[in-house]
Amino acid sequence: MIFADFNFKDVDRVQTFYNIAKKNGRKFVIKIKDAYFLKHLSSDPNLNLPNCDDEHIIIYKAKYRTGTYSDSDYVGEDRTFATAPNALTTAEIAAKPDKYICAIGFFSFNALIDMKPKSGVIYIHSSNEAYNEEQVLSTKRLNNWIEKFQMEHHQIHCSDHANGGDLMDLIKEIDAKTRSKKNRYQK
After folding, report:
1. What is the DSSP-derived secondary structure letter of residue 108?
2. Measured between alpha carbons, how far is 2 from 24 in angstroms, rounded to an integer?
3. What is the pLDDT of residue 115?
4. How high is the pLDDT of residue 171?
5. Helix %, strand %, coil % for the chain, to 5?
6. Within the chain, which residues score under 50 in pLDDT?
7. Is the dihedral of CA 150, 30, 96, 69 positive or negative?
């Protein structure tokens, strides 16, 4: 099983992971809230995004109010997505782990409890590294999940800046001096 964690509003990233899934004979699993994005953004021909009813898309049907998969737990368009023919529960996804790339992300990791993934499951974090205190805490929580389920973690992100480790190596290599906060803002 493969989990890909990225900002779903990044349509290039959505398209990339969708295409990877398709080219590797897998289905691309998305959350119900992300089905809204695909439903509406797929109508823009410039974005080249699949619709949420695409044959290569699976909608992850999360447990809601009752903690079950009761159709009455879902209201409005959530119910439309949750009862769609391409909506699957955690057990249905877990039954065929080699058939999916799951873009459910860190905030849906409670699904791992029901999926019971085997050790070695691949987790791809395709987003920037933590750069503030809140993100550092979230990264610690993420690492606890990764350790608990013995996932193989890959940090893969393309941006226009170096990652934290590379920046620290550069500072050490050029023997850069740092200014104290007091001097930083003085002219």
Report:
1. G
2. 12
3. 85
4. 78
5. 40, 15, 45
6. 187
7. positive
The ranges assigned to domains in the chain are 2-160
Distance, in Å, from the CA atom of 172 to the CA atom of 102, rounded to the nearest integer, reads: 39
**Roughly what angle, to the nearest 10 degrees, separates helices 32-41 and 11-23?**
100
CB contact at 8 A, 107 and 7: no
Give, in order, the Cα–Cα distances in Å from 28 to each of 2, 36, 51: 10, 15, 12
What number of other Cβ atoms are within 10 A of residue 119's Cβ? 8
Q: What is the per-residue pLDDT for 159?
A: 58
Fold (CATH) for 2-160: Rossmann fold (3.40.50)
pLDDT in tens, 25-71: 999 999 999 999 999 999 999 999 999 999 999 999 999 889 888 98
Q: Residue type at 142?
A: L
H/E run at residue 148: helix 133-148
CB 54 within 8 A of CB 29: no
- Residue 33 near residue 60 (C-beta atoms within 8 A): no
